[in-house]
Amino acid sequence: MPDPKYPYTKEVVDAARKEGMTQIEIAKLCRIQQSTVSGWSKGEKIAPIHVIKPLIEKYGTQINKKHSRVYFAYERRYIINDTVLSLCAEHAESLKTHLGEIYNTQQEFFQVFEKTGVVLSTKKKKPFEPSEKDKLLDSAYSEKESIVQVEGKIIFKYHFQRKTDQQTNKPGSRTKLFTWQRWIIHELGAGELTWVVQIRREIKGCLIDTLYDDAKWKSLIMSPRKPEEIIQRAEKYIAQENFDVNNFNDKAVLPFLLRKSFIENGYYIEGIEKILAK
Fold first, then answer.
1. Distance from C-alpha of 36 to C-alpha of 32, rounded to nearest angstrom
2. Which domains does the chain have, with CATH numbers?
3. Are 222 and 140 in contact (CB under 8 A)?
């Protein structure tokens, strides 16, 4: 698979030149010809990441720091607390060894039960009903809030919208839409991306409403990922049976817009047909 291109080729070369490196020195560092460096410097060519990587390692942070955004972030956590122990009373003693440990996903949380030899069951030794399992998860779930600064240029934004409850009966008026979720993707460099999933913040079940947009949202910040992984997870997300049936537009346009953004920012995406200029 071809290496992705580095979209800030000219900028990182300029940063190196400002630090005193000559085109000859850059060429030696990257093991290429000086004429190639000249093309980079003029913005005529975009370098593959594996070729320009030595320059990225030295000066890439200077480029990323020009683009940053601050988020009100949260982390999902599942903890074996007293309520969870009461729901699994007959297994409480074996689960107490894990009391206080934090698990970031439902899968990690339930693996604890498997490791202790516990089959998720009620006091009557019957399998948990879905509602009981949901109650267990709700009891264990908590969030850790923080403020996080993410560096890197934003290359993708998407708003998930649904109809509001407040509709107007005026002839010719448009249906009011409510943005309930947003996706933002930052470039980190070296072919990696940070994926930010935002949902509206609430206090006691009421949405926070303020003129300051960034303060309305809480953000789940994903660890660095490759474009292919984001596409796969996005398509899996919108294919869920419980995905809002009213959001058929998202299912139609989101996969295309993700690929379009990645391609236009120099990333290789498999299965794309190219018509090259002569």
1. 7
2. 9-64 (1.10.260), 76-143 (no CATH), 152-264 (no CATH)
3. no
Q: Is the pLDDT of residue 278 over 80?
A: no
Quote the pTM value.
0.69
Distance CA(221)–CA(223), nearest Å, equals 7
Indicate the SS3 state at residue 44: coil
Q: Rounded to 5 degrees, what angle do the CA atoms 134, 181, 204 make? A: 60
Q: What is the pLDDT of residues 42-97, one digit of tens each?
A: 888 888 888 988 988 888 777 766 678 999 999 888 888 888 888 777 778 888 88
- Strand locations in the chain (E): 68-79, 102-103, 141-151, 154-163, 177-189, 192-200, 202-203, 206-207, 217-221
Q: Are 190 and 170 in contact (CB under 8 A)?
A: no
